[in-house]
Specification:
The chain has 20 helices and 30 strands. The protein has 644 residues and is an alpha/beta fold. The chain has a 7-stranded mixed β-sheet, sandwiched between helices. The structure holds 5'-O-(acetylsulfamoyl)adenosine.
Length: 644
């Protein structure tokens, strides 16, 4: 392993940081390790308002955890009400920009008023604590307002990313048994309208639990409204009061469910609760983003993913920060839209993904060079491993060698950032997420759970429960235990491979299960394969990822057809749009290759490893419409398998 370059935080940055030295980090880490109850109890008292204190900090009945047991609180109260008695009352909570260029600034006071009004709208529809809602919206202020209104009443929300298809939306509504769907007429993306309401209507045809649909007007285009079921947000809002007390909720009240791809065809509902999530998300805002009162903070992710939940909405608002929300594509109408927004609002902290960074590199340095980026003081990365070249570019061209970079490793399941530098304390190495945060006992192990030597690859696990961890899989506690906690008993299996270097730095190598990561979006092999075989022409499908210079990975699907062979050309496009229809456009395979048969082991398992090799090394050449004969390789490989 060659020693990689190190970047030390500047003295100036460290002096003002929340955590200022390696020694200070070690001290925090050790405290959390030795006396976790005291450590987390102290964080909880400092960061959060509680209506009633806990009887004990945590309860661990593997694999089930409870945090701040018996405590009462409300995240909407913590994001809004408690700021209103401080100078933050008139601070910008949200600076929003729509893709067409429209803008809105909501102060804490104004955001509070709008959340209260919408909470009253939900109450008026008969919704109450314990109910579930689906939110399917563009990135407009009404989206965080809907989330905060649900949270205010104890209604668990599930935000479905606006890029998902009707089919995917339907599966989620049905699994959640949602009573209400909150959506919009549409939204803007690359100058085109995303027809959310029309898609929701298609999904809702088959969702008997949904009694009401609330529609926010965004694009103003005409949509069908089903009498008795559909209501305009602005009409319902007219007749409600702007006073709505936050419900006093138990610490373990479900806050949200986020569906994410796993290793089977069915997405998993990751369940997060309130108290522990709040505490750790608030702490990581300070530890990782080193948030200061004067900061304007921009996480350029989508609220439909966990990054947006924790680090666009709940984290920044709990901390009383100004969070920038942008509706559209970062390169629309020109590749410098993102840099323009930074210059315009004088953004101090930017949090984005390696995929986005690689796309900016490809567009060329001339675009960021056109803008004054001197307001930036910290840069973040999330979603996939960042390659050192992209890291260096981000550091040089965007950060002007002045801004520390925080490469943050975490997952939908973990709720908050787990492995990341504290920017004033930890020297960084391009490509490494560095070291675990306080309270996170991470390790790299073999299949028996034994720690592997430095420099060796292994499975990344977490040895102890942490406050923001997910509590279960929605309606599937068995799978929760089996899949995450029982494989290496008592430890949380992340599904990622990693190695640790001699300094104890973690290098995340990517997924070891059948989960792919395209542009930071999690896609499951099985989910894609089952979507493909639902098409009438398809007999079998095997899906693998190939490395891709921009999106990290790209999907390649090997498909056998029912009537053997067939003319590929039209079918390629048809199958791609089929996947778009079944899951969403972002999941469309980059390539579809028709094959006579799929390579299988004697026991009938598809040899994805072999296909992966083919798409990586391109050993089997040929364009995407050629029928590839994999049988020879297949026979060779299964012989090897039998021999070994
Ligand atoms: C926040 C988020 C989780 C998976 C995870 C990893 C990969 C995320 C990094 C990363 C290397 C990183 N949630 N991943 N961050 N890999 N370095 N900094 O992305 O549930 O959608 O995805 O993403 O494989 O397991 S997620």
């Amino acid at each position: 392993m060659k020693a990689s370059k190190r970047y030390h935080p500047s003295r100036e940055f460290s002096q003002k940081a929340h955590v200022r030295s390696m020694g200070a980090y070690r001290k925090l880490y050790q405290q959390a390790l030795d006396t976790p109850e005291e450590f987390w109890g102290a964080q909880a008292e400092r960061e959060i308002h509680w209506f009633q204190k806990w009887s004990h900090v945590f309860e661990w009945n593997p694999p089930f955890a409870k945090w701040f047991v018996g405590a009462k609180t409300n995240i909407s109260y913590n994001c809004l009400d408690r700021h209103l008695s401080t100078w933050r009352k008139n601070r910008a909570a949200i600076i929003w920009e729509g893709e067409p260029g429209d803008q809105q600034v909501l102060t804490y006071q104004e955001l509070h008023r709008r959340v209260c009004r919408f909470a009253n709208v939900l109450k008026g529809l008969g919704l109450k604590a314990g109910d579930t809602s689906i939110i399917y919206m563009p990135m407009i202020p009404a989206l965080p307002i809907a989330m905060l209104a649900c949270a205010r009443l104890g209604i668990a929300h599930s935000v479905v990313f606006g890029g998902f298809s009707a089919e995917a939306l339907k599966t989620r509504i049905q699994d959640l048994e949602a009573k209400v769907v909150i959506t919009a007429d549409g939204g803007w993306r690359r100058g085109r309208e995303i027809h959310l309401k029309a898609t929701a209507d298609e999904a809702l045809a088959d969702c008997p639990t949904v009694k009401d649909v609330v529609v926010c007007r965004r694009t103003g285009h005409e949509v069908a409204m089903h009498a008795g079921r559909d209501h305009w947000w602005h009409e319902l809002e007219q007749s409600v009061s702007e006073v709505c007390e936050a419900e006093v909720l138990d610490s373990e009240t479900p806050l949200f469910v986020l569906y994410t791809s796993g290793t089977t065809g069915k997405p998993k509902g990751i369940v997060h609760t309130t108290g522990g999530y709040m505490v750790e998300v608030a702490c990581t805002m300070k530890w990782v983003f080193d948030l200061r009162e004067e900061d304007t903070y921009w996480c350029a992710a989508d609220i439909g993913w966990v990054t947006g939940h924790s680090y666009i909405v709940y984290g920044p608002l709990m901390e009383g920060a100004t969070t920038v929300i942008y509706e559209g594509a970062p390169d629309y109408p020109q590749p410098d839209r993102i840099w323009r927004i930074i210059e315009k609002y004088k953004v101090n902290i930017l949090y984005t993904s390696p995929t986005a960074i690689r796309a900016f590199i490809k567009n060329g340095e001339q675009w960021p060079r056109k803008h004054d980026l001197s307001s930036l003081r910290l840069l973040g990365s999330v979603g996939e491993p960042i390659n050192p070249a992209a890291w260096e570019w981000y550091h040089k061209v965007i950060g002007h060698e002045r801004c520390p970079i925080v490469d943050t490793w975490w997952q939908t399941e973990t709720g908050s950032i787990m492995i990341s530098p504290m920017p004033g304390a930890i020297p960084t190495k391009p490509g490494s997420a560095t070291v675990p945060l306080p309270g996170i006992v991470a390790d790299v192990v073999d299949l028996d759970g034994n720690t592997v030597e430095p420099g060796k690859e292994g499975f990344l696990i977490i040895r102890r429960a942490w406050p923001a961890m997910f509590r279960t899989l929605y309606r599937d506690p068995q799978r929760y235990g089996d899949q995450y906690w029982r494989r290496i008993p008592g430890n949380y299996l992340t599904g990622d491979a990693a190695r640790r270097d001699k300094d104890g730095y973690f290098w995340i190598l990517g997924r070891v299960d059948d989960v792919m990561n395209v542009s930071g979006h999690r896609l499951s092999t099985m989910e894609l394969e089952s979507a493909l075989v639902r098409h009438p022409a398809v007999a079998e499908a095997a899906v693998v990822a190939r490395p891709h210079e921009i999106t990290g990975q790209a999907v390649v699907a090997f498909v056998t057809l029912k009537h053997g062979g067939g003319d590929g050309k039209d079918l390629v496009e048809e199958l791609r749009s089929w996947v778009g229809h079944e899951i969403g456009s972002f999941a469309k395979p980059e390539q579809i290759r028709f094959v006579e048969s799929l390579p299988k082991t004697r026991s009938g398992k598809i040899m994805r490893r072999l296909l992966r090799e083919i798409v990586t090394t391109d050993k089997v050449a040929g364009d995407i419409t050629t029928l590839e004969d994999l049988s020879v390789i297949s026979r060779l490989s299964s012989q090897q398998e039998e021999e070994s």
